[in-house]
Design goal:
Length: 320
């Protein structure tokens, strides 16, 4: 271990690694997981994801950014064959008055999760390259899909869609996302797993309004939009967006079908999100039976005094 690594961070980083590898045995499930979850690992301002032989550091504070060499030195003995990539989003750099100069981003490569393969692209505009927080939800989602027509809205790089077809044996799967870049990556992920999925680059509102009059309905619908706000002043607008999206998505669910809807906006509580879904159901004259509430996997712990750390809310509903 590098002696120059500050003791406070070295011990906390060691503990974070131990939690993932020795407590949850994540190396047996995947080679992609959250290694440090900011306040949840008592390392505020730092997020670390492992993707195969690459460790990605994301900084949210100037203090953590200045410790980047020490952080790498502390993690390197645990992952001796790994390389490091780091970044901070533009709004963080402005807020923290730092100039985070990232190394050259590696080309996209492949990771494995529950036996399925996915291309990841660290350095792209989509977080650290892959949404590892939904790993357990993807596996559960697959169990509802056998022989079903499945719709994955805001599908990003196709995680839920691929699980539905490759592991869940869905009859037909459609994925929709506005971002042309992630749709291209989603198609590559389908090809990697040798499954046929129809991916469409489109705005979900326009796409749903186009297909609903024809009577198209899906047995299983996933809605997993991006974070809607990081500003408390914009929470009312974020809730309106959630209401509009869920209202329209509910109309695409066949009677008796499954609707899974997510919010990764930490400033929106589970109680508030559930109320938004209730309102969407009332406005569409649909009855929803909530079957299960879940969130991010165990590699995303949160502290009892930092409620926003439990940012991901996933609600599983039967729709009549």
């Amino acid at each position: 271990m590098n002696r120059s690594t500050p003791p406070f961070s070295r011990g906390r980083l060691d503990r974070a690694v131990e939690l993932r590898r020795e407590f949850f045995h994540l190396d047996q499930v995947t080679d992609a997981y959250r290694l440090v979850h900011s306040e949840g690992d008592d390392l505020s301002g730092l997020v670390v994801d492992r993707f195969g032989s690459l460790i990605v550091l994301e900084f949210f504070s100037a203090g953590m950014y200045r410790q980047r060499e020490h952080i790498q030195a502390a993690l390197a003995p645990h992952y001796p064959d790994c390389q490091f990539y780091w970044f901070a989003e533009e709004h963080v750099q402005k807020q923290e008055s730092i100039d985070c100069r990232s190394p050259e981003a590696p080309p996209p490569f492949t990771i494995t999760e529950h036996g399925l393969r996915f291309r990841v692209a660290p350095g792209s505009k989509h977080k650290t390259g892959f949404f590892v927080d939904q790993r357990d939800n993807r596996k559960l989602f697959a169990t509802f899909c056998k022989g079903k027509r499945v719709l994955d809205l805001c599908c990003n790089t196709g995680g839920f869609a691929v699980y539905a077809k490759a592991m869940g044996e869905a009859e037909d799967v459609v994925g929709v996302d506005l971002d042309e870049e992630v749709i291209a990556l989603a198609q590559k992920n389908a090809n990697l797993n040798q499954v046929r999925i129809k991916f469409t680059q489109a705005d979900l509102f326009a796409w749903l309004r186009d297909i609903l009059p024809s009577g198209q309905r899906f047995d299983v619908v996933m809605l997993d939009p991006a974070k809607q706000t990081r500003d408390r002043d914009d929470i009312p607008l974020a809730l309106k967006k959630y209401l509009d999206m869920n209202r329209l998505a509910l109309l695409s669910v066949a009677p008796g079908g499954l609707f899974v809807t997510c919010s990764c906006t930490g400033l929106v509580s589970e109680e508030t999100f559930l109320d938004t879904i209730r309102r969407a159901a009332w406005q569409t004259v649909r009855q929803i039976q909530i079957l299960h509430l879940s969130g991010a996997g165990p590699d995303h712990p949160f502290m009892a005094h930092v409620a926003e750390g439990r940012y991901l809310k996933t609600v599983w509903c039967r729709v009549d």
